[in-house]
Amino acid sequence: MSALSTNVFAQARMKWLLVVPLLAFFVVFFVIPVGLLFATSLNPQAIGQVAVTADLTLDNYLRFFSRSNYLLAAGRSVILGVIVAAITVVVAYPMAYVIAKTEHPGRNTFLLILVLAAMQLDMVIRLYGMMVILGDEGLINQMLRGLGLIGAESSVQLMYNFMGVVMGLVQFALPFMILTLVGVIRGIDPSLEEAARSLGASRRRAFLRVTLPMSMPGILSGSLLVFALSISSYIVPALMGGFRVGVLPIHIFQQVAEGARFQFGATIAVILFVLSALAVAIYLRLGRRHSGGLA
Amino acid sequence: MTERRIPLVLAILAILGFAYMLLPIVVVVLAGLTAGEFLTFPPQGLSLRWVAAFLSSEKYLSSFFFSFKLALMTMIVSTILGTAAALFLSRTNMVGRAAMRAFFLSPVVLPGVVVGFALFAFYISTGIGLSRTIWGLWIGHILYSTPYVIGTVGAALAAYDTSLEEAARSLGASPWRAFRKVTLPNISQGIQAGSIFAFIVSFGQFEVSLFLSSPNSEPLPIAMYNSLRYQFDPSAAAAGIFAITLVIASVLLTNRLVNLRTLLERRQDGS
Prior knowledge:
Oligomer: heterodimer
InterPro entries (chain B): MetI-like, MetI-like_sf
CATH class of chain A: Mainly Alpha
GO cellular component, one term (chain B): plasma membrane
Membrane topology (chain B): Multi-pass membrane protein
CATH superfamily of chain A: MetI-like
CATH class of the largest domain in chain B: Mainly Alpha
Number of domains of chain A: 1
Number of helices of chain B: 12
Main location (chain B): membrane
Shape of chain B: globular
CATH topology of the largest domain in chain B: MetI-like fold
Transmembrane segments (chain B): 7-33, 64-90, 102-124, 136-160, 235-258
Radius of gyration of chain B: 22 Å
């Protein structure tokens, strides 16, 4: 501490002035609203009523856990998150490996720019592109018709179903997974793979026996991150599932925006929030040493 | 030489992966430039008719500028609050520092729909007049943009040697002067990169905006979503072209300011 004591924010009190504005902002506009949402979920259902009352009950949770409709939605969200995480690992790993092993600075930066641009681009725009490709009148169906593989009037259903949502979520999650894995793969000492090679292992065997197992911590924390992001997405199930794949975020919006059922909507929201916070908490515990800096 | 160290199978899979990641974006650009009513295969030729349609459309153009304004407003506050918080986090060794950092970064991974809903209910029940206004959206966007500033400025601070500021102090500079003349110039590129991130995250924000927008205050992603639910409108793709250009320009600018490689691969310092 003495080394730092000469700087401008020397006094502890002065230093706190730096963080108090953001802390206050987060408390007022993040902690309190989310806290009130938890409280709302414990109020009895009253259509159109938003304000929190002192009347506490577990009715909404009992309703959630006794209706197969909502339990199925929760199960569907979790399964979706797991499937998307698994597919995203498989798709992202080779991409991350190539980025990590590209030593030419220009090429390396170019690949990172591609990943970052995809990640930063508005999801609605990326889904527009996916819909143009996968829709009933989309490019793939046009191509299949052109090649005579399907009839001129028929089409293969590639979206507005579970598979479409999975493909959209993989598109959404890929950059996050790639950035997590690049750091991990680059953190693996290349001399280990070289040692395996010099002991006679083929390049593929060295990769399978050394690099891949050593990437496991990163694969795990990347999967948790992707799981949390996937179960939270509204836009992907809405556009790629056409509201036919009922997941938790879709139900929240329907309860609130269409039914003005704030209390039950809050209940679903709390359940989604807790699921995603759990995944994030495990991610943070695992990820301290293994993940990239931004997420 | 470098390429040969990558097993062929992995290289092929990586190319397919990049195609999967980037093809939808290319398709949007083509859909916005197509001469036909919608994108067909093979394409019907290029034209600027949809770009012209976007530029004369009340709906998309006004939400484009609404989003731009909202992103600028968000950028200013996120940059100030986030930079200050990152400075604090780099200069404290209090217990719970890692927890506080995780708390500030948490909105990135927590469900935006839930946080948007929580803010929406909060605005209504407290009657503070923020519901369905640009100010209400602004608050939600600040929550989701500030973590990127903290991450980027934090990385710049981690690379910065504090003893430089101390040297300035020992040579007689006042604390404020030492900070302004020595520390600030050293981290200014990180701050600029962080503010670009904040801008672009706000510009593309959908989930938080869902509950907080109204027909009078409609950001571009929401406007595009509302039209996309019913039909493919190529002028939405043309709006997309402008958004894509904006994102690519900002990533290129970020790359000039900071080393992307070190920024993205910085380990989270846990304690």
